[in-house]
UniProtKB/TrEMBL annotation:
Pfam families according to UniProt: BPD_transp_2 (PF02653)
PANTHER family noted in UniProt: ABC TRANSPORTER PERMEASE PROTEIN YPHD-RELATED-RELATED, INNER MEMBRANE ABC TRANSPORTER PERMEASE PROTEIN YJFF
Residue intervals passing through the bilayer: 32-53, 65-84, 90-107, 114-137, 191-211, 242-260, 295-313, 325-343
Record-given protein name: Sugar ABC transporter permease
Ranges annotated as biased composition (Low complexity): 1-21
Entry annotated with the keyword Aminoacyl-tRNA synthetase: no
Membrane topology note: Multi-pass membrane protein
Record organism: Jiangella ureilytica
One GO CC term on file: plasma membrane
Gene Ontology terms for molecular function: transmembrane transporter activity
Region listing for Disordered, in residue ranges: 1-22
Length: 351
């Protein structure tokens, strides 16, 4: 006869280890600390700007911040995927140059706007695939592989044209920068967005969902934590690493569409240094350069911090524009040091 013993009523089913441990909870809080710090810096910049210059907390400032930085937000989302795996993508700025010059020339040659835009996006996807293949199948380090892709894209853009290429005034691509009034404020204090801003918001939502609600996203985090362990667990490491570089390239192509529609022209020197701005936004937003920890929403905050910094420098009038790079470097250094301190604390707790 078999005697079955039931657990007492009210007892927790399963082992106690099924609950997150104290160290796990502390680790999650430490992971989010850089993102919280970036958010506090952003709020502090708003408070300082309002106190020092005025007219910061208003609709038109928010509108300009979103419209002028929508392409950077899109780039930052793509770089978040890459950096979460411990990789890097230096090609996105050059991809924008090649994609935008090609798209404008095709549009001016009589191509349908939809076809021209599609080609711009596919150029980014193709160049991202090139980087992924070099990294995954030829064992090239991400820094070198994407550097090679950067030179390739910049060279192709220069072969197409070395002078600014201007979109026709009646081109439908310009409609992607048409302003849509959301709130009709006093005088010029209106809240407006553009289709480019809407595209950036959609990409942020999709990126967040993919990273936090799908197997692909969990694999991205696992690779960043330990690629060897992810492989031993049977996760699709190869396909995922190829996918993240295709995603980064594709989003660079979309960013090219958004930026070109707003500017109305393209040039082979467009996007120089933008990859560094996007990487800075991702790091300021709390993503570790070593991978495994980070958030898409944090990267958005990082991009907005950089954008608001430009607004404040412009409002001040007495700060030279070159100081933007110096200030960005200082902020980035602080966040890199913060990441190192948190990583050291986490290793100490695990030990």
């Amino acid at each position: 006869m078999t005697v079955t013993t039931r657990p007492p009523t009210g007892s927790a089913p399963g082992p106690a280890s099924s609950r997150p441990s104290l160290s796990d909870r502390l680790g999650a809080r430490l992971s989010a600390l850089p993102t919280v710090a970036a958010l506090l810096i952003f709020v502090g910049m708003i408070i300082y700007g309002e106190a020092a210059y005025g007219r910061i907390v208003q609709f038109n400032t928010l509108s300009n911040l979103l419209v002028n930085n929508s392409h950077l937000i899109i780039l930052a989302v793509g770089l978040t995927f890459v950096i979460l795996t411990g990789g890097i993508d230096l090609s996105v700025g050059a991809v924008i140059a090649f994609s935008s010059v090609a798209g404008v020339m095709l549009s001016n040659a009589g191509w349908h706007p939809v076809a021209a835009v599609l080609v711009m996006v596919l150029i980014g996807s193709a160049l991202g695939l090139v980087s992924g293949v070099l990294i995954q199948y030829f064992g090239v380090q991400p820094f070198i592989a994407t550097l090679a892709t950067m030179f390739l894209a910049r060279g192709l853009a220069s072969m197409l044209s070395t002078v600014p290429e201007r979109l026709a005034d009646d081109s439908a691509i310009r409609d992607l920068a048409a302003q849509l009034k959301i709130v009709d404020g006093d005088k010029v204090n209106d809240l407006v967005i553009t289709p480019g801003v809407i595209a950036a918001i959609v990409i942020v939502v999709v990126g967040f969902t993919v990273l936090h609600r799908t197997r692909f996203g969990r694999t991205v985090y696992a690779i960043g934590g330990s690629e060897q362990s992810a492989t031993l667990m049977g996760l699709p490491v190869t396909a995922t690493k190829l996918g993240i570089y295709v995603i980064s390239g594709t989003l660079a192509g979309i960013a090219a569409v958004v930026y070109t529609s707003r500017l109305g022209s393209a040039q082979n020197i467009t996007g120089i240094g933008w990859e560094l701005d996007a990487i800075a936004a991702v790091v300021i937003g709390g993503t570790l350069l070593t991978g495994g920890t980070g958030f898409v929403l944090g990267s958005v905050v990082g991009a907005l911090v950089l954008g608001l910094m430009n607004v404040l420098i412009t409002r001040d009038g007495g700060i030279r524009p070159e100081m933007t790079t110096i200030i960005t470097g200082g902020i980035l250094l602080v966040f890199v040091i913060l990441q190192r301190v948190l990583a050291a604390r986490r290793r100490g707790e695990q030990a």
